[in-house]
Amino acid sequence: MRGGSNYLLDIGRTIGLSDDLGAVLCARLRAAACSPRSENVGQTMTSVDAASVDSPVTETIGTRIERDFVGAAGVGLVYLGDRLGLFTALRDGGPATSGELAARTSLVERYMREWLAGVAAAGYVDYDPIMGRFSLTAEQAAYFADAQNPLFAGATAQFQLKILEQADAVAEAFRRGGGVPYSAYDPGVANGFERDSRKYYGNNLVPTWLPALPGVIEALRDGGAMLDVGCGGGGACFAVARAFPTASVVGIDTHGPAIERARADAAATGLDARVTFKAMNAAELPEASAYDLVTAFEIVHDLADPVAGLRGIHRSLKPTGACLTRDPFAADTVEGNLNAQGKLLYWASVFYCMTVSLAQEGIGLGTCMGEAKARELAVTAGFTSVRRLPLGDETELFLELRR
To answer: How far apart are CA 178 and CA 248, in angstroms?
Structure first.
């Protein structure tokens, strides 16, 4: 078993520090542990002494910190590689030295050399020390160079990094209340979300998700109508429109720039005759009973007033229609979410989902909504049938709602 203080040496080696400098870090940790503490602190927390730094508990905490901090460093490297097209250039052009990849991409070699060393240290690319060349395996390319692959990580790195740009604004919301409005976030957040969702819609929506809804495929084939709530750039709308040439499709979103992008893409692809986009809230949907299918992907937990939004969806469905919701899967209790998935979801809630809702004077439901709360909201909104579907993986919650 490693000594608790030695994990700092390991971190240092991971990021390229010498053992001497790593030892300095260990010494500083021990010094901090032995420093005098106020009596008030001692009354509520056991004082940490030098011996406890080597305890198994401290080692466990240190291992988690190491994993989280090194992982965060990887997010930045992935973001740069995706933003600058470095992974795709390495895949398409084959193995390269830093100079060769810099020439291939018309970028500065010194930056390229450091970035390549970093992603090689992370295991995101391979390195041949004899030839001095870096390369991508097929598996690495799936994660970093193929935006349509379900494994693609570039979009996630984009929205995670861009969301954190609002960390100081979120801190201020802790002090004054309210939240950080959607409009405050860099456009890269919305773009990252849209890029991330496309791989799911392209690979799963029509071939896997819709067949789980009895009668929906047949209705769309016969020229039925579909509504996507929180459509963003229109990825789900376009996937359905291409699969069902006689169906009519509508997407709504409160984010004006996303609606404009979706309209432009519809016109560019010749789908604008059957696919329309509107800037509106789900709560504003008329009592039209117009749609055979309504989808709400990663949106219910974000809504300022989720019951009002679900009531709008309820009104818009035909009597035989179905609503398909997809939200992150979370347990119904805090203790049930004390795991890696919970850490990610609470992070997303604090820095984005909850605070955006609170900025609209909403209830701030948060990302860890849970299945019980989702069912409660649907029933309150008037749905008489709420069925969990065996779709996706353990990180996703799919519900079928019927009037």
So the answer is: 39
